[in-house]
Amino acid sequence: MPDVTRTQVAVVGGGPAGLLLSHLLQRSGIDSVVVDIRTRREIEEAHRAGILEHDSVRTLVDSGASERVMHEGAQHDGIELAFGGGRHRIDFAGLVGASTRLYPQTEVFVDLADVRERDGGDVRFGVTDVSVHDVETDTPAVRFTDAQGVAQEVRAGVLVGADGSRSACRRAVPEAHRTQYFREYPYAWFGILCEAPPSAEELIYNHSERGFALISQRTESLQRMYFQCDPDTDPEDWSDDRIWEELQTRLQSNGCTLREGPITSRSVLPFRSFVQEPMRHGAMVLAGDAAHTVPPTGAKGLNLAIADVTVLADVLARAVPAGDLGLLDEYTERALARVWKAQYFSYWMTTLLHRPPEASPFDVRRQQGELAALVSSEAGSTFLAEAYCGWPGGR
Ligand code: DHB
């Protein structure tokens, strides 16, 4: 027989979505237990995207989850679009009075894990054999073996699946009760970290005939860059010299030269768009990547997860004390409205900037025309700025 823990909300997944939710719930006086199959160390070492929307920053700061984001995160008041031989700035501050912050997801995770520990949150990393049960009743449960090898059961009033893009909770919804929307792309990103000074103050989204490249930053001495590649690429086939030559060629076509340094990490990131609807089944709800995945262009993944759990915490603060699971439908409705806007935006940024494998010269020139139309129009630039910084006020 497993050891049984009773709580109000059981959360599967201790990444940023699961930890932020349990933090927000505690502020509303609601208890939760969080479990994750990964160790804290494994989550900390995963390289993920680095851009936080305006409201994501506000949520982290106002809830007391992170002060560091204000001191150590760099404020970005715009991005550059490089194409057709030149560079063009999109001025977020001037167009929509908003900004983003460069603060990598791993730092968000560290802050949240520290705050949960400080506040006595029940978070169990490094568990195995996770399974969810009784989600169609009002006492759903998660069973697992803890890091010490002891069988455990957490029984709750609501179960939250925040267990990422390979979610087991998502699969616990019977096929007849869910719709999955799915799209694959014929390219991926080759991502590197390199020890070099920044090549630019802001992010450069670079369109070229050889394919897309993105120049981002991490610190004064560590940089993050990506370039479009074939999904079957083996990162070990690429020497440092070959990577730099490819990046430089793509950037130099728009008059930009990168500062090089030793490459300390390399990986290939898959591209897909995915949504599972509804985001509620019985006493279980899905949040973050468990419910939806976006391609990385525009860095919406973490921001959507933060937006999901902000709405979810608000709904649970009413549903849990009232014992009214019917209120969970409000979560699905409010979250999906934003999810589909972000799906559209991520798809649009992706297809605007990437070279399809069979692209004709017409396709490439048409993309340049679209980019030129965008940067020369205040309406077009404002659309991009608003979506990139995040639609305000939960809209
Ligand atoms: C980063 C990743 C993105 O997908 C993006 O659009 C911008 C920045 C990053 O890792 O820094």
Shape designation: globular
Ions, cofactors and other bound molecules: 3,4-dihydroxybenzoic acid
Computed over alpha carbons, the radius of gyration is: 21 Å
Can you summarize the main beta sheet?
7 strands, mixed
Strand neighbour order, sheet with most strands: 7-6-16-17-18-15-19
Kindly identify the CATH topology of the largest domain: FAD/NAD(P)-binding domain
* Domain tally: 2
Question: What does the average pLDDT come to?
Answer: 96
What percent strand? 25-35%
Tell how many strands the DSSP assignment holds. 23
Structural class category: alpha/beta
Output the CATH homologous superfamily of the largest domain.
FAD/NAD(P)-binding domain
CATH classification, class level of the largest domain: Alpha Beta
Cα separation of the termini: 47 Å
Report what the structure shows:
- The structure is a single chain.
- By secondary structure, this protein is an alpha/beta fold.
- The protein folds into two domains: 231 residues, FAD/NAD(P)-binding domain; 129 residues, D-Amino Acid Oxidase, subunit A, domain 2 (D-Amino Acid Oxidase, Chain A, domain 2, 2-Layer Sandwich), CATH 3.30.9.10.
- The strands form five sheets. The protein has a seven-stranded mixed sheet, sandwiched between helices. The protein has a six-stranded mixed sheet with strand order 9-3-2-13-22-21.
- Helix 1 runs parallel beside helix 9 and helix 9 runs antiparallel to helix 10.
- The longest helix has 26 residues.
- The N and C termini lie far apart (47 Å).
- The model has no long low-confidence stretch (mean pLDDT 96).
- The site of 3,4-dihydroxybenzoic acid (DHB) has 11 residues, from strand 17.
